[in-house]
Amino acid sequence: MKKNVVVAQSGGPSPVINASLLGVIEECRARPDVFGKIYAAWHGVEGILQEELIDIDMEEDLELDLLQYTPASGAIGTCRYKLREENAEDFERIIDVFEAQNIGWFFYIGGNDSMDTASKVAKLAEKRGFELTAAGVPKTIDNDIGDDEFTIIDHTPGYGSAARYWSHIIQQTEEENRAIGVSEPVAVMQAMGRTSGYIPAAARLADPRREMPLQIYLAETNHNLESLTENVNRMLKERGRCIVVASEGFNAGSLGEARDG
User: Which of 57, 65, 113, 142 is catalytic?
Assistant: First the structure.
């Protein structure tokens, strides 16, 4: 008896996340001798835990084809629920649902945490003697999945869209900063990516000839607030204005901020 498929999404949506979803569906449909029914978990792993599964076979081909042009992840939903090792009942529940639905294939679209989840579920299934193939489908604008030499994957789907966004927004910021620089000479922007600097680095795409007063601070460079201030002041003396793009992982030190708890 053929085993069924579950595909789910996790984490923040990207402009191309549904293209990855469609890719999984199309490849499974192209091998009817291998894959049984295809289910999509409603809102990621939470949908699996609650056994809220969408029967993709009931969807019309035209509707599915539109996925490749549809941004965000409203089609099957996503979540940020993390499966933690101390919550063993969550993992057990997933295997129980898979057994009940005759699931033998699990595709999880997401970033680092999602890849880790797929691995943990696969290991638990093996431990219980349950036949399951789990695969992580890379999706993260951070571009931080794979190895440093890019032999596993050259980029993660979603990063290209983020890089293009930053090239455009920096071009627009340059025009604004140049216009109002006499009153507001410094524009500061924070880029996503945690401690991975691929997104802030993409800001340079807006200025390949390095003509803008643009400074980019990656978390990997170990700059701090003191060195940033020194560099910005130097740029102000030279150009009269400055555009700063800092990684969200940039070490700003303690700013005396208040925290709950």
Answer: 142
In angstroms, the CA 24 to CA 133 distance is: 14
What's this model's pTM, rounded to 2 decimal places? 0.82
Q: How many CA atoms lie within 13 A of 226 on its CB side?
A: 3
Relative to beta strand 242-247, strand 186-191 is: parallel
pLDDT in tens, 87-144: 889 989 999 999 999 999 999 998 888 888 889 899 989 988 999 999 999 888 888 8
CATH number assigned to the domain with residue range 3-139, chosen from the 4 options 3.20.20.70, 3.30.1120.10, 3.30.450.20, 3.40.50.450: 3.40.50.450
Cα–Cα distance list, 260 to 14, 28, 81, 257 (Å): 30, 47, 22, 10
Cα–Cα distance measured from residue 225 to residue 251, given in angstroms and rounded to the nearest whole number: 7
Known catalytic residue: 142? yes
